[in-house]
Structure formats: structure tokens, C-alpha cells
Write a structure and sequence with these properties.
Elements lengths: L4 H26 L6 H24 L1 E6 L2 E6 L6 H34 L1 H5 L3 H9 L2 H14 L4 H15 L8 E4 L10 H35 L5 H34 L12 E2 L4 H19 L1 H9 L3 H29 L1
Antiparallel strand pairs: 1-2, 1-4, 2-3
Helix pairs in contact: 1-2, 1-10, 2-3, 2-10, 3-6, 3-8, 3-9, 6-8, 8-9, 9-10, 10-11
């Protein structure tokens, strides 16, 4: 079926994410010197999250359909154990919020570095862990809210049953799903589903507003605050700022914009009479493209990465490993031959 083309896009997104993010992590851990301290840990953590997010999407195969005042969130994977697939689509939804909040944390940290770099350098290990693992909290909260507030019931299933069959030739009852229908037929509020949409909107908009605020404040303060740094550090801070701008552009295109119609359209009051029938699961394919985009943008903008890649210094390690392997193999063969001669 046509909607199953998303499976190809999802696997392509995972392949790109795994290759580029792994390469980025490798360069950052082994070679890069100017990205250090907590910020180094933050970008590595974010790259790992991107790989996990894309890999989980391959198994969960999440898809969505917006119909009038409802959001039908389900999995196209009908082969795995039901409980495991449901857990996978819950976890994937939580990873979405982890990514948004991780970007917000990076923006806050870079803004603080610009204002007072010594304070950020002298943070305790406990505070460093707090910076790194804070994004897990809103992600876990979002996952828990989805689990607690969006289980399907007879009303929600009947509301979308016909439209799901018409669009996908699938029976709602056989799908691993969550259904968000904030209003009853009499236009009264279904508080569980309504509360979930409010929680989702607040979490996404709150962290995205942090990204916008910190980005704007850094742009305003950049010229004055950079006078505190050496010439070399000024260039580096400007590169980090450009990388962050691309990191804000990426979520705007790949994460925030796809989320707006999916999460907010069900909250439109029924009295408006707005009819919606969208296969919004296609937008998830854009979300899956974001993790490799972020790593590529960082490597293109920060000069140390560009110089390292252009000169191919990272290839020397592979050559050394290859030579040492060949040498060890040759030595082993010589020893074996000597042993054979001695025994004769």
C-alpha cells in the first residue's frame, strides 16, 4: 500500500542517522579538542539519542491520522508482540520530546557560556549529569501521559473506525493504537484526551520557546559578550552559535512544524465545523531525517571538523590498525613456521 512507503523512508533515515551520527561521535571523542567539557557530552548524548530514535522508528513504524477532532496514533507493525509494539510507539513518542528538550538544553548551556564561561566550566559532576539527563524527564512524562490518558475505548474507536478503513483498509480493532478524541458528540470535553493534548502542546512549545529565546538573546548579546574571549575563542563561539542556529532551523522544519497540525488540530472546538481528514503519519518521515541533519550541520560549520575531514587525519587510525593487524598476522605466521621446524 502507498502509506507503507514510509517504511522505506524510515529505514533510510535510520541508515543515514547511524552512519553520520556514529561518524560524528567518533570524531568528537577521538580527535576534536575545541568541543570539550559538558558541551562535548551534550552533543554526544544528542547524537546517541538520534540513533536510538531512528532505530526505534524502524521497529515501531509509527503512523498517525487526523480526523476532525481526533488523532489516531498507531503502528504499522502487526507482526511483533502486541505489548512490545505498543511500548515501542509510546517510547518513540517520548523520544520526540527528548530530542526537543535536548536542543533546548544545548541552547541554555551555550547562552550561559557566553555570559559566564568560568561558571559553566566549574560545574560539579552532579550538575553535569543533571544537564545531560534532564531531557529524559519531559520525555518520560510525555510517554506516561500517553499511556495513562489515551487508551482507546468504544467511543474513540467508533469515531475513527470508518475513516481508518477507508484510508488504509485496516480494522481499528486489530491495530496497536492510541486514540485522542478530546470532545464527545455533544461537544462536551473528554478530559483524559483533552489533558494529554494540553500536556503535549505545553511540553513542545515550552522547550521550543526556550530555543527561540536563547537564540535571540545570544544574537543580541554576541558582539558585547565576545569581547571577553580571545580572538581564537571568538571564532569558535561564533561557529557554535551558527551551529545552534542550524540546530534551531532543523527542529523548526523537521520537528516543530510537523507536530503543530498533528497535536493541535484535535483541540479545535467542534463548533467551528472544520473538517479534517489527513494522513499525518507522513510527517513522521520528516522527523526521522532530523538526527543526521543535525550532525552534518555541526560538522560543516565548526572549522575543526571541516579541517579534520578535509585532511583525512581520522583515516590514519584505520591505516595504523590495518598495519598492526597485518604485522601481528605476519609475526604469528612466522612463529608458527618456526615452531613447526623446531618440532621436526
Amino acid at each position: 500500500m502507498q502509506y507503507e512507503l514510509t517504511d522505506i523512508l524510515t529505514k533510510l533515515g535510520f541508515l543515514l542517522s547511524f552512519l553520520f551520527n556514529s561518524f560524528f561521535i567518533y570524531l568528537t571523542v577521538i580527535y576534536i579538542q575545541n568541543v570539550s567539557g559538558l558541551y562535548k557530552k551534550l552533543v554526544i548524548f544528542f547524537s546517541i539519542v538520534g540513533i536510538l530514535f531512528s532505530g526505534l522508528e524502524v521497529y515501531a513504524r509509527p503512523f498517525a491520522h487526523n480526523f476532525n477532532n481526533s488523532l489516531f496514533y498507531f503502528s504499522l507493525n502487526n507482526s511483533g508482540p502486541e505489548s512490545l509494539v505498543i511500548f515501542a510507539i509510546m517510547l518513540w513518542a517520548g523520544f520526540y520530546v527528548v530530542i526537543v528538550s535536548s536542543i533546548a538544553v544545548q541552547f541554555i548551556y551555550r547562552y550561559m557560556c557566553l555570559l559566564d564561561s568560568e561558571k559553566t566550566m566549574n560545574m560539579s559532576s552532579l550538575k553535569n549529569l543533571g544537564w545531560m539527563f534532564y531531557p529524559v524527564l519531559p520525555g518520560a512524562f510525555y510517554t506516561g501521559a500517553l499511556y495513562m490518558l489515551c487508551w482507546p475505548d468504544e467511543y474513540s474507536d467508533s469515531y475513527v473506525r470508518n475513516v481508518i478503513f477507508d484510508n488504509y483498509q485496516l480494522d481499528v480493532a486489530n491495530l496497536r493504537r492510541f486514540v485522542m478524541t478530546p470532545y464527545n458528540t455533544d461537544e462536551s470535553i473528554r478530559w483524559n484526551n483533552f489533558t494529554f493534548h494540553v500536556i503535549a502542546a505545553v511540553l513542545v512549545c515550552f522547550h521550543y520557546s526556550i530555543i527561540i529565546f536563547c537564540g535571540f538573546r545570544m544574537h543580541i548579546s554576541m558582539k558585547h559578550e565576545l569581547e571577553k574571549f580571545s580572538v581564537q575563542n571568538r571564532k569558535l563561539q561564533k561557529q557554535f552559535f551558527k551551529a545552534l542556529l542550524f540546530q534551531s532551523l532543523g527542529p523548526s522544519i523537521f520537528i516543530f512544524m510537523p507536530a503543530v497540525p498533528v497535536l493541535l488540530s484535535p483541540l479545535l472546538p467542534p463548533v467551528l465545523g472544520i473538517k479534517i481528514n489527513w494522513q499525518t503519519g507522513w510527517l513522521y518521515s520528516f522527523i526521522g531525517v532530523y538526527p543526521p541533519f543535525d550532525s552534518i550541520a555541526f560538522m560543516v560549520i565548526v572549522t575543526e571538523y571541516k579541517v579534520l575531514i578535509r585532511r583525512g587525519r581520522f583515516l590514519k587510525l584505520f591505516n595504523k590498525n590495518h598495519k598492526s593487524t597485518v604485522h601481528a598476522s605476519g609475526t604469528s605466521q612466522m612463529n608458527n613456521r618456526s615452531s613447526a621446524l623446531d618440532s621436526t
